Amino acid sequence: MAAGGRTDGALPDLRRYVVARPIYNEPSFQEDNESIPGPSTTLRERAQKACSCSKRRALQITKTFFPILEWLPKYRLKEWLLSDIISGISTGLVATLQGLAYALLAAVPVGYGLYSAFFPILTYFFLGTSRHISVGPFPVVSLMVGSVVLSMAPDENFRVVSSNITGLNKTVIDIDARDAQRVIIASTITFLVGIMQLVLGALQIGFIVRYLADPLVGGFTTAAAFQVFVSQLKIVLNVSTQNYNGVLSIIYTLIEIFENIGTTNIADLIAGLLTIVICMVVKEINDRFRHKIRVPIPIEVIVTIVAAGISYGVDLEKKYNAGIVKSIPSGFLPPEPPAVNMFGDMMASAFSIAIVAYAIAVSVGKVYATKYDYAIDGNQEFIAFGVSNVFSGAFSCFVATTALSRTAVQESTGGKTQVAGIISAGIVLIAIVALGKLLEPLQKSVLAAVVIANLKGMFMQVLDVPRLWRQSKADALIWVFTCIASIILGLDLGLLAGLVFALLTVVLRVQFPSWGTLGNVPGTDIYKKVTRYKNVIEPEGVKILRFSSPIFYANIDGLRSSLKSSVGFDAVRVYNKRLKALRKIQKLIKKGKLKATKNGIISDFGTTNEAFEPDEDPEDPSELDVPTKEVEVQVDWNSDLPVKVNVPKVPLHSLIFDFGAVSFMDVVAVRAMKTIVKEFERIDVRVYIASHLDHIMKNLELCDFFDDSTQKEMFFLTVHDAVLHIQSQILHKDSQDPIFEKISLLQESKEPIEFTETNQSEELDVQEEAMRRLAS
């Protein structure tokens, strides 16, 4: 191989290259280049290797399950500790407030949100592979937990009859019993989610999250943000509604909110609106001046403290009937076992929550892992969150993942490792032990407003839709469909519907892939679509078809259709028409209307049929043998025939399939390809396959693609190899045109053969089977 041209003292022109090599088909390439056989190991050998153990392997496995052993010994105490402390304190304050707020979404008393912001961090510190995510509640996951809790423990199940001093009976809700049951349900589903995540991690199927494409997750989280907004809106307004679940539940909730909007508590509404406005303004300041403000202003903490102080000082509950937190338990509750009898009722929802929680955590973790140049292990993350949820489920927590806003605080304030996470857990611990009572006067509308203010990022994802539409209409449709389905059907069914729709778009794109006819860029070995470039030329008599997809049972009909559209005719129809023409010629010969000669076939009127080429140098009739003689004539199927049969023209002599984009073929596709090859070969169109992958050849061998007539010589390394082979065959062909077909008409008459030139006429009795055989 030579690179460019070179003269003495001159540098080679590296912008051009010239390659000189043989034309390679599959057998010739295998002959010149010995293939390397793949490693062959028995099941026993693989089992022995997997079960073998050494000191080094044991240490590696231990570090895999406990990543802290990998990064903690490398911890830079002087450089990182101060940053982690500052980050941990800032994150802990935010986590405390978000824990209280997200407990409202999970439909459990707000105090249990503090437990959910504390316990999961303890185990993730040892088992997690991400150094930057802040583990704890997340609004979408909390809302999914809350939907399960509300469906299994609605208010209607806890109505009791109470007598007042006037002796009148009144139906009220036993709030204590209701909250206790809801805590059991939330902790049970958390435990079940943890078990599922552990199983998925142990089975090494962390790849399952790849099926949750970014457009799908974007549409789902935006719909979840809308669900969260509606659920918190009634708390901001302090309007009582029924707890709807399932299909159209959000619509029913909105309708009831507007029906009861006249009962809005003004004190709660004002507090909520002020909180939303102040939080969003300060967050915008934090975002715009993040390079100047090293530690973001913890506006949620400030607003919460001020709101609690105002509520306590003014006594909003008694004067204005404002809804307040009322009771936050101090200290910890003893661990409780899960209610195993509930597993069957929450299995499907638990699986959805397990996947969504994992997907959110891994997606956020990968962003920061890429930014700081380290890797996270997807399977280990499954195990880490599984253990965290099993552990925290025993302490009355709800499902943990990571929150985008809280993680952003931990990273932007200088957090380097999960030491910042464990310090944030310490801040939450202080709130649980000592500060709970101080937050009891806090209005619930303030907590709901904090939740709404943190939804801005998820609502802003709507702006991704126009960009997605420009880049990929299929991805934009996935986003929109998942969002609408999740709003209408609910989060669990909406996620399932979005996943099915996303997979359906993939199936449709594979079932109806792009295809095109290729042409050659003159003077190069480059082949491009003829419809895309002006100077691309199709080789004469050669059609090159590229099919950009795996070929399997679902799209084989598409391949046939695109092939027919590219070549301009149906090979089966052409064959049948030719066979019909041959049969009519046979009948005319039997009736004496056509006569066979060495020069071709003539009619009764002695006029030569122009559809057949006469021999230039006919043999002497006297040299012919006895009556049973094989007489050959040539039929030009692209000319006029002596019979009234419309035989389609076939302007091709070669057909090349470019298999460069074909990654696999199933049994149905192999059989169909073999049929296609046979159909074209019998109408004198040679079929070649180029640019195939090595495993495709092996697959064809296993599926018995090759036989006496279909050989490996039809496979070429590149399209250009195939074209050069065809051109060389044309240059060295015989004088006979390959478009012509020899038809042997067997003379079975025992009378002497009679030729027109010598007034010795002869009628040929041709067997139909012979005609069929010779036409193929």
Describe this structure in words.
This protein is an alpha/beta fold. The protein contains 28 helices and 14 strands. Strands 6-5-7-11-12-13 form a six-stranded mixed beta sheet. The protein has a two-stranded antiparallel sheet with strand order 1-4. Strands 2-3 form a two-stranded antiparallel sheet. A hairpin with a 5-residue loop joins strand 2 and strand 3. It starts with 25 loop residues before the first helix and ends with a helix. The C terminus is likely disordered. Pfam families: STAS (PF01740), Sulfate_transp (PF00916). This is Pendrin. InterPro entries: S04_transporter_CS, SLC26A/SulP_dom, SLC26A/SulP_fam, STAS_dom, STAS_dom_sf. One of its GO terms (molecular function) is secondary active sulfate transmembrane transporter activity. Its main location: membrane.
Keywords for this entry:
776 residues; alpha/beta; 6-stranded mixed beta sheet; elongated
